[in-house]
Design a protein that fits this description.
alpha/beta; binds zinc ion; 20% strand; 8-stranded parallel barrel; 38% helix; TIM Barrel; 8 strands; binds D-xylitol-5-phosphate
Length: 216
């Protein structure tokens, strides 16, 4: 069954208000979009906001770090209650640091996620797959909600699904950016496990109908 991770990004300043609205609905996870104004232009929530949500709910917290220097943040997000901590492949100059980071995330009992921008290929991260619990395939350039889905992501997901199956790996596939109910069907058949959805839920007149349409 597909899981829906609702993105915090469209809510801007009213994170708690938006979360309370979502909590009543059928979402599986809260996708916390953390931006530092350096890796991407926008600056959004941080570990203190994640801790605030954790204090009032037991929802799975799926944290997407779009930050230039994630290494020092692992402990902070673990303490804040993150269940999944995802870092960007492109944020690391030295791959040794990325490998250390992935191991550290697991040491703090969180699932280790690795995200790739649209230009990064599956081949570039192929050798890292045994070290990660989840790959977050970006279907838009990270940084903004409400962008158009890049269709090239579909073949990336199918390729990733084949590799995971062939190598018998435990690795979830999450997709993020520009997703609506029509695209959800294609993404599910390509092999996605988790869909991150921002604008399609946030702008829906009836949010529950929107979530149910994504899951259908
Ligand atoms: C983009 C973020 C996404 C985004 C999703 O950088 O990582 O999570 O907010 O929003 P939509 O669904 O509007 O593309
Ligand atoms: Zn995201």
């Amino acid at each position: 069954m597909i899981k829906i991770s609702a993105s915090t990004h469209p809510a801007k300043d009213d994170l708690i208000g938006y979360f309370k609205e979502l909590e009543e609905l059928n979402i599986d996870m809260l996708h916390c979009d953390v931006m530092d104004g350096e890796f991407v232009e926008d600056k959004t929530i941080n570990y203190l906001d994640v801790a605030k949500i954790n204090a009032i709910s037991t929802i799975v917290l799926d944290v997407h770090l779009m930050v230039a220097n994630p290494v020092s943040l692992v402990k902070k997000y673990a303490k804040a209650g993150a269940n999944i901590l995802t870092v960007h492949y492109e944020a690391f100059k030295d791959e040794k640091d990325l490998i250390k980071m992935l191991k550290l995330i697991k040491k703090y009992n969180m699932l280790a996620g690795l995200s790739i921008k649209p230009q990064t290929t599956i081949e570039q991260i192929y050798h890292l797959l045994p070290l990660v619990d989840l790959v977050l395939v970006m279907s838009v350039e990270p940084g903004k909600s409400g962008q158009k889905f890049m269709t090239g992501s579909l073949s990336k997901i199918s390729k990733l699904r084949q590799i995971i199956k062939k190598q018998n790996l435990y690795c979830l596939i999450e997709v993020d950016g520009g997703i609506n109910d029509t695209l959800a069907k294609d993404l599910i058949s390509s092999g996605a496990d988790i869909l991150v959805v921002g604008s399609f839920i946030f702008n829906a007149v009836n949010k529950l109908d929107a979530i149910n349409a994504l899951k259908k």
